[in-house]
From TrEMBL:
Signal peptide: none
Source species, domain of life: Eukaryota
Region feature Disordered, mapped onto this chain: 116-137
Lineage: Eukaryota, Fungi, Dikarya, Ascomycota, Pezizomycotina
InterPro entries: AB_hydrolase_fold, DUF829_TMEM53
UniProt name for this protein: Transmembrane protein 53
A family per Pfam: DUF829
Organism in which the protein naturally occurs: Podospora didyma
Membrane-spanning ranges: none
Length: 319
């Protein structure tokens, strides 16, 4: 007699149905992965080894599918098996509803803060008990690795930072950051392509009029108002926020830009201009890595070895 008992899905089937099933969902757009204790070299948030980030923060491009995001999360698990990972997804609806986006993405803040509790007051030690090199290295050691993709990821990171700093007692940790295909400035065609990238079939055609209207409004904000002396447009403000020296120069250890001339959504000259602006504002360790012939947020697919070597070197530094 056949049994009517439900059959549990295999891990492979679960992964196929939801490629991010190994992560815990904290909100519609925020996830966390916590390593198994057996694979973790740092069982608590306060005992991470210098070789591994205490936390990895990923901010994906707008409309990125779970399958594509997982292709970046998995290599991070391999590179830093002891490090927890927080993922913030950028969704098309965030651009139409910024207030709800703030609430959605702010769900990441309490979890991130939990990995970086306030440090207890340090006892004064005589100079003879400390080496100058040792103190310098400790002060400059990052604890947080940030990786963002495209303008969607840049905007998501801005929202995360805003939520974190809403607590005046929170000190943003020392960090390194990878900019993949970001940040870019406004172009009508590039913006339309970006916000419609995840739409296919009839849904795309039904949404196109609204998307064109949205891009036209962005054109007014960036071109008519932004370029003629009024308030800068949203993308310009997001790019400027990443180079806010007053907030981040003392916290950022190093950054790397990964980009390509073949990217039709984000102009390579915008990326290099942003890197140049960062240097002018005092960010000391700024690295630019131009890939050849790779499309928007597809540089890892073009040269995996180089891409993940850059990620590792952004974290560890290059002598």
């Amino acid at each position: 007699m056949a049994s009517n008992a439900p059959v549990a899905a295999s891990p492979a089937a679960a992964a196929a149905a939801d490629p991010l099933s190994f992560m815990t969902r904290l909100s519609p757009s925020v996830y966390i992965y916590r390593p198994e204790p057996s694979s973790s070299a740092c069982p608590s948030s306060t005992s991470a080894t210098p070789a591994s980030p205490r936390l990895i923060l990923l901010a994906s491009w707008m409309g990125a599918r779970a399958l594509h995001i997982a292709k970046y999360v998995r290599p991070y698990q391999a590179l830093f098996p002891s490090s927890p990972i927080v993922l913030v997804r950028s969704e098309l609806r965030h651009f139409f509803g910024p207030r709800s986006a703030d609430v959605d993405i702010a769900a990441a803040a309490p979890t991130i803060r939990s990995f970086f509790p306030p440090s207890p007051p340090q006892q004064h030690q005589p100079p003879s008990s400390q080496t100058e090199d040792g103190v310098s290295k400790k002060k400059n050691s990052p604890e947080l690795l940030i990786h963002l993709w495209s303008n969607g990821g840049s905007t998501a990171l801005w929202r995360v930072r805003k939520a974190l700093l809403s607590n005046p007692d929170f000190l943003f940790p020392k960090y390194t950051i990878v900019f993949d295909s970001s940040p870019g400035q406004f172009t009508y065609g590039g913006s339309l392509a970006a916000i419609s990238a995840g739409l296919t079939g009839p849904k795309r055609w039904l949404m196109l009029p609204a998307l064109h209207a949205f891009c036209a409004w962005f054109w007014v904000l960036h071109v008519v108002l932004g370029r003629f002396g009024f308030q800068p447009g949203p993308l310009a403000r997001m790019a400027a926020a990443q180079n806010d020296a007053a907030k981040w120069k003392g916290r950022e250890v190093r950054r790397t830009y990964i980009y390509s001339e073949a990217d039709h959504l984000v102009d390579w000259r915008d990326v290099e201009a942003h890197a140049g602006d960062a240097r002018l504002k005092g960010f000391e360790d700024v690295r630019v890595e131009r890939f050849n012939g790779t499309a928007h947020v597809a540089h890892a697919r073009g040269d995996q070895e180089r891409y993940w070597r850059l990620v590792r070197e952004t974290w560890e530094g290059v002598d």
